[in-house]
Structure formats: structure tokens, C-alpha cells
Amino acid sequence: MRNRIVIGLAVLVVFLSSFTWSGWFGKKVDYNSEVKPILNKHCMGCHGGVKKAGDVSFLFEHEMLEPGKSGKIPVVKGDADASEMIRRILSNDPDEKMPKNGTPLTDDEVGILKTWINEGAEWETHWSYKRIEKPDVPSLGNIWNLFGLLPVGDATWAKNEIDNFILQKLNEKGLSKSPEADRATLIRRVSLDLTGLPPTEKEVSDFESDKSDNAYEKVVDRLLKSPSYGEKWTSMWMDLARYADTKGYESDGGRSMWRYRDYVVKSFNDDKPFDQFTIEQLAGDLMPKGKDVFPKQENMIATGYHRNTMTNNEGGTDDEEFRTAAQIDRVNTTWEVWQGTTFACIQCHSHPYDPIPHEDYYKYMAFFNNSRDEDVWDEWPKLRFYKGEDSVRVERVKNWIKQYNPKQVEEVTQFMNVMEPKINAHNFIKGDQSTVLLISYYGVKDKGNARIPQVDLTNAGSVVMNMSTKAENAVLTLHLDKLDGPVLSQIKLPSRDTVLVAPIAKVSGKHDIYLSLNSPKAPEEWVRITWMSFQKELPGADQPDYSQIVADYATALTRSTESMPVVWEGKGDFARKTNVFVRGNWMVKGAEVKPDVPKLLAPMPKEYSRDRLGLAKWIVNRENALTGRVIVNRFWEQLFGKGIVETVEDFGSQGSEPTHQELLDWLAVEFMEQDQWSVKKLLKRVVMSATYRQSSKTDKDKLEKDPYNIWISRGPRVRLSAEQVRDQALACSGLISKKMYGPGVMPPQPDKIWQSPYSGEKWTLSEGEDRYRRGVYTYWKRTAPYPSMVTFDAPSREFCQSRRILTNTPLQALVTLNDPVYLEAAESLATKMLKRGKTPEQQLTEGYRMLTFQPIGQKNLNVLVKIYKEALLSYKKKPSEADSMLIYGKVKSPELAALTISANVMLNLDNVVTKE
């Protein structure tokens, strides 16, 4: 009797726990989930950040409580009947009824708004902008397993906390979990996800035969240690970094940025903490100095992230306009990648759907506005990599300065490494006999002149100048304050392209400097000046070897070295003021603003510097509401094909609602606190979950209830990325190269894809193993990206792209059936198949297994055999066509040609280009 009473009480407790007090007494209207969507749908178009019709806005709480142009208050807390919003919505007067010329609100929508106002019109911050608090992990205990005491049901299925959250949702939605995928499918899935490459046959066999409890974990650990891991995740990051090997815009000339790509590969492989990874990319030039009081080379290379912006070399363009465009791109990209917010909206007006005012855009842009790049043809500043004798010269100069004035080492080292600070010649104000040369630079003839405004000459003792001319005996004179003013320096110009160092008279303060050219021997020859820098003279002028040191300094700066564009902060006179652009127009300046972050998010700590370094630290600060969520969601999307927030680029009120918000927050807190921003630990946690390991097979019930698998009742089934489709073909055919790093390579692509009328650049086919390297190393031209990757939805990388929207077009089949890369892979695969069986059936069965690691069904085998036999018959009739088909190997036969056709078909199969 007592046992029955205990069981009865337990059932009653469970029954009561399924209700909430709000279920009994009614719950309050939720602003974020119920009210905000109605306002965004019906009201914000006219009463938001873009427009404030009738002086009414619902973007900020204080605005909706203030009288509009009519003098009436839109929302009166606690009194819907007194609220002008409700009166206008219910009005029958066509001149008053809201929304004006829009779809009327439904009765349910009106009811929600009225109830919300009567309940006090409580305003809430959107969920994603609230500080991330770690939620409790749902319990898997229930009456059937005696609240976790018995090892049955969900409790035995779950592998880690992720599964608890997923199971809770599945139970709510009336869905069931799926069993674990078979081992061959599972290792192929996790290998493709973590390394971007399929497993080898031996790796599959070893996993299938390993009966230990931690067999799968050993696979995961091995994959996370593989060098291929960094290459896979770099492919994802390159879209976010808008990485390319060219400058963009119409001329789209080459750019040496590959060291940045290699930095990303190494960072992922080293499992560099993501917060450090962030800071280095956004502010590597401002981080603590390395040897010779210059930032570490690795940190400088990392700043290439924001030098992946485009440079416009078209003649007649305004350099300042496109410098500004680059700054805007940096702001928008930073917000999209780390903050998941459509911040670009605020460039022209306050955000129409989220409470971010217009001026916040320019306060944020002020962090970036001091970068020294100015849209010049040579893309300065660049980090220079000295080698050989040039490196020896640099060391001689540094050692000399250390001996005679150690305090000067930093500025000289800085200039030799990035050639900053300097005045680019497009800032000269042209006078007589002057023009623009090489798109950005100053050209002057005999009797010509120009003015360089407001140069600080305090402590300056020399001018360092890059110039070029064919004129002999030309003399450049620098005057102080006016064209016939005191002479600062008179410089005899050599008739070549060089950097020269000349002494100047000692003067203090800021002055206009006038230059004039006297070139009587060749009056029609131009002198081109690309930049000038007024510096302290090198120390030790009274020493016998001084002239040689000055020559070494000039020679080192003149010599052409390997280099890459980097970000460098302009300070002092090279710092810029930032103004609001009225309506987003860069030519109409509004109020001046100082660097700051939006009030919507946590404030920047007072001890943080108000520059990019402080900003980067704020972005990865624990108090920042967005970064942890956004980054975790981004990696989740890569594994499951869909983010917990599907709109990975938009966490605002117009983005998709999270399917598992508590899971997202839990993962974000774990990532920041427990994992210390370790991406490998995050990925391991996800792929170790039972959720990830589920079979992708489904049934009619699940397809009806969850057609897009947003509740994850089954494993992910997603087409491979553009890079993976190609890499898999090379890997399975045995062609792929394991070579890492270095300049971009040019594997086979169709002729006449590149049209480079300005530079005459050609797609030069790479030789040897370079043609078989992974897709991440393929040379990327923005105006003509590698065509087979574009067909599989890779972006042009002119701008940041957070996710690739997967398409399915006939062009994709045409690529895998006809592209030279896939034809060569098919021939190589066929050669391997030929050795695996005596009959066509055996060979085709083996080929299918090498691609999918699964046995082939008889129906599919019959189709492939038919293809093989038809091809074989054709090639036996016309052996010359077999020779034309087999152009990569030495062996030629109708049988191999027919098998190559069959292999080519298999490379195109849905379950080959799909991750099951």
C-alpha cells in the first residue's frame, strides 16, 4: 500500500511539473518574441531608424513614450485605450489608419499590442544583446528512469551536455532521436568536417575494427592534430576575411597576401585561443613589441585581415573616396564576423530595427580611421621581408644606431620595416608643370612646383624621398613657407628610380613646404615623386663610416623586397579626425566623433586604450553579449549545415530566432570560460555528442514534422563545399599534394577565363605537385575566381560572406563531368580500380567503395556497368578516342578509358559530393 502511495505521489509531481504558474494564471506578453516582430513588420518602415513619420518612432523606448507631431503619445503605459498607436490602428478613417497603405494588423496582433500596453508596455533588450548567462543543463531524469537512477532511455543515449538540450527540444516537438550512424559514414563525416578531406581506406578499416570504448574519440583527436585541420578551417575563414590574391575593382592587379593565409592555417593548427586570434588580426600592429622594439612579425602579418579590402587603381578615381570605402568595409566586416549584426544599415541612418543610432557607426569607424593606407597604387604600408645582402644592410644600420643613439632604433626600424610615417605624394597640392603619374603619384617638369601643407619639422634633419626620372642634372629645391622662401634643401636627382636621403636645414614647428624643379637639360622629362618622409638624421655623423651607413639605409629602402600590405596606425600628425557622414555621404561631414562602442552593448572598460587594440579586447571581453554566441554559432553551422541561429550574419531582431537558445548560450560560456577560447575543444565537444553522431537517414514522420532538420532529429546531410568537392576528388584518386603554405597556385582551369587588359597577367598552369594542392591554396582573382569553385557557390571575395547559400544547378554536374581536374582524377581513380578487380563489376564496386566507403547497391551497380559497357563498345570501335580520353597517364586501353568514364560518373554522384 505504501509503495502505491509513493508511486502515485511521484506521478502527481510529474503531472504538476508539466504546468507553470503562468499556465494556470496566464503569462505576460513577451516583448521580444511577440511584440517586437509586430512592430518590425508593420511599423518600423515608417517609424524607425530610417523614417520618423509624424515624429514618432518605436526604435527606442523613450521615443515611443514621447508625444509625436500631433501632440499625442503613441504608447501610454498601462492604458491601451489612451495610446495613440492603438487608436490609429483601430481607426476607420483612411487618413489616420495605421499602418498607412499597408496590410492591416490581425485581431491577434492587435490583441497582443493592447495586452502588452495594459500590462505596462515593458521594454526589453533583444535576447542577443543581453549578457550571456550560463543556463542550467536540462535533466534527462523522468519517471521512466526513476529520474536518472536507471540507465535507460535518453540517459544512455546522451554523450555530453549538448544532447540534453537537444533531447529537451525533441521531446517538446514530439520527435525522436536517430540511432548512431554506421562507422564508415561517421568517420567520413567527421573527417570531412574537421579536415575537409575524406578518410583513407586504412583509417576506415582501423576504425571499424577498433572495439575499444574510446575508438571514436581517438579518431577525433587524430583529426584535430592533423595539419589538414588548419587548412579546412582556413577555407571557412578566407570567406570572412574576403581573402584574395588580387586588389579588386576593374584592374584587379596582383597582391601578395599569401602570408596572411598561411598565418591563419598555422593559427588553427596551433589552436591559438580565438580571443588572441581576434586581437592579432584587428590590432597586431598595436600589440606589445618584439625584438628591436617592433611588433612581432606574426602579429603584423595577422593585420592582413583588414588589408584584404580592395584598392581601386582606376585612373581618375578619388583616393580618399576609396580609402573611406575601405574603412566602411572594415567596420561592416568586423560587425558581421564577430558581432553578427547588420551594422552596415547604420552608415546612412539609425538602424531601422535595432536600437543603434546613426552616430554610433562613425564612433566605431573612428577606431579604424587612423590606418595609414590611402588607396595608393603601391598599397602602402607594406611589411617588408629583407633577405641576403639587404638583410645585412638593415642589421648594419640598426647596429650603428644602437651604438650612437639607441633611442632612435625604434623609429628607424619601423621605417625600414613598413616605411611609415611618410607623406604620400597624392597629398601634394600641385602647382605649375605638375600632373598625376601612375594613378596616385606626383609628376613635375622643369620650372614646376607644388606645396606640401603643414609638415612638422621639429627635430627633423633629413628628407627621405622616393623618386624616379630619366632627366639628367635635375635639381629639386625645398623652400620654407613660400615658393621663394628660405631653402631647406637642394637635392641633385639621379636619373633612376631610387630612395635618396638628403640633409635639410634645422627648423622647428609646422610649415608649408614648397618644392620646385630645375631641369634645363631635359625640360620635358617628368620627375615622379611617390612619397617623402621628414626624419631625424641618422646619428654618428662625425664618424668615418657615416656616409656608408646612410647609403646602406637608402639602398635598403630602394631595393625591391618581398612584401605584403599590412595595417599600421597613424599617430600624431598622421592621426585623422572622424566625422559623422550626413546620410552616409562621405563628402558631407557632420559632427566630429571620438572612438566608442554602441551603448546597446557593454561599455568598453576604462583601462582599455581608445584604439583598435582596445576595441579588439572589448570584442572578446566576457561582458560582450555577442561575440561568444556568434562565433560558436558559426562553427556549429559549419558542422550541421545550419546555425542554431540560421542567419549567422544577423543576430538582431530581424534575424532568425535561435532554435536552441539555451544551448547556444551554454556553448558560448563554455567556449569562453571552460575552453579558454580553444576552437579545438569546442569542435571536439560538438562532434563527440550523440546529436552529431546520429544517422542522417529519416522517415516520413520526421520529414513531415521537421523537414529541414532544424530540431536535429537526425544527422546532418549537406553538400560539400566547393573546396571539398575538388579536394575529395584529388584525395580519393591519389593525386592530392600534402604540400603546405606559400604563394597561391594555378591548377588547370578553362582558357580565356582571365581577361587582364591592364597588366596582361595570365593564368600560368602550375607544374608538378602544385597543380594538385588543396583548394585553399588556389590563386584567387576577385574579378575571375577559380570557375569550378564559383559554380559550387564560392564567393568572389570582394566583400565578407558569412555563409554560402548552397545551390543545385546543372552547371555543377557539368563541372564534375568535364573539368580537367575531375577528368584527371577520374583517370587516376580508374587506374586504381583496374588493379582492384578482374571484372568490371568488381572494379566498379571497389571504385564506389573508395569514394563512399559503402557497399554499392545492385541497382546502382547495374547502371554503372551499363555505362561502362557502352563506353567500352564505343572505344573499341574507335581506339583513337580512347587515346584522346586518356591524356594524363602512360597506359592507354579501351578498358581503362571506359573505366575512366565510369569513375567520372561516380565522382558526380550525389552521395559522393554530399556529407551524409
Task: Please give a quick description of this structure.
The protein is an alpha+beta fold. The strands form five sheets. Strands 2, 4, 5, 7, 10 and 12 form a six-stranded antiparallel sheet that branches. The radius of gyration is 33 Å and the shape is globular.
Defining key terms:
34 helices; alpha+beta; 916 residues; Jelly Rolls; 5-stranded antiparallel beta sheet
Describe the structure.
The relative contact order is 0.10. Helix 11 packs antiparallel against helix 24, helix 18 crosses helix 20 and helix 30 crosses helix 31. With 916 residues, this protein is an alpha+beta fold. Strands 2, 4, 5, 7, 10 and 12 form a 6-stranded antiparallel beta sheet that branches. Among the domains are: 94 residues; 134 residues, no CATH class; 176 residues, Sandwich (Jelly Rolls); 91 residues, no CATH class. About 2% of the residues have low confidence. The chain is globular.
The percentage of residues in β strands lies in 5-15%
Query: CATH superfamily of the domain at 386-561, called what?
Result: Galactose-binding domain-like
Residue runs with pLDDT of under 50 for 5 or more positions: 5-25
Q: Which fold name is given in CATH as the topology of the domain at 386-561?
A: Jelly Rolls
How far apart the termini lie comes to 53 Å
What is the β-strand count? Answer: 17
Counted by DSSP, the helix tally is: 34
Keywords: Heme, Iron, Metal-binding
Protein name: DUF1553 domain-containing protein
InterPro entries: Cyt_c-like_dom, Cyt_c-like_dom_sf, Cyt_c_Planctomycete-type, DUF1549, DUF1553
Organism: Dyadobacter psychrotolerans
